[in-house]
From TrEMBL, chains A, B:
SUPFAM superfamilies per the UniProt record, alphabetical: YaeB-like (SSF118196)
Pfam families, sorted: TrmO_N (PF01980)
Organism: Kibdelosporangium lantanae
Record-stated family: Belongs to the tRNA methyltransferase O family.
This protein's encoding gene: tsaA
TsaA-like domain mapped to chain residues: 4-134
Keywords, sorted A to Z: S-adenosyl-L-methionine
TM annotation in the entry: none
Organism placement in taxonomy: Bacteria, Bacillati, Actinomycetota, Actinomycetes, Pseudonocardiales
Record-given protein name: tRNA (N6-threonylcarbamoyladenosine(37)-N6)-methyltransferase TrmO
Amino acid sequence: MITLSPIGVVESPLTDRKTAPKQGDEGAPEAVLVFTPEVRDGLRDFEVGAWLLVLTWLHRSNRDVLVVRPRSDRNRPQTGVFSTRSPDRPNPIGLHRVQVLAIDGLRIRVSGLEALDGTPIVDVKPVLDTDIER
Amino acid sequence: MITLSPIGVVESPLTDRKTAPKQGDEGAPEAVLVFTPEVRDGLRDFEVGAWLLVLTWLHRSNRDVLVVRPRSDRNRPQTGVFSTRSPDRPNPIGLHRVQVLAIDGLRIRVSGLEALDGTPIVDVKPVLDTDIER
């Protein structure tokens, strides 16, 4: 069995899954990544303006879902969940690309993040050039 | 506590962490994603040529690491692990961008993947335009 230990939590004005934007570029609000004191040493070297990949645990998701109907076209047949970004999936790990806006100790303010208030953070990685080139 | 259930496993010629490439663009070999029968329905709609993000559990990692010395410059001071892609980190989730080369039921052959043989797969997502634009 694989166990994840949250390294922090998302602080966001988003509290309702039904009204939350589905992707960070769809008007998601700024949010604060609030890290636990235990990982303080891992936070050094964050810089304002840097782009980060934030991995979250989408704790409100349904993990029994294998096929979904894409919201872009309700007439389309159901789609395998691994060809979608649906939060409902066997291991609901959220992947969010954000920009660092401000750093205050364990609190990192970031640009548009489509995760609900209280969502556990499980990892943060820098964006690499190889992530964005084809 | 958060628990992940593997949805498959990486089949790769890479067996030794010391000699494995660190990123997929550094000569990593083709690999096969071997999924469990339980998630078969989630695999439909994969297409040859598509780009996928594969999330793995880097099971050989040291989870107690918060600062690392970047391999690019051994003279630099230690760096907070969340500003690096080091596999040694509190929640060692690997993130790999690969292209689908062939599909055979539960076995999906993909381009350069820098994960060791036997690495558990925990999620697969499509690459979105918003992942690769700044």
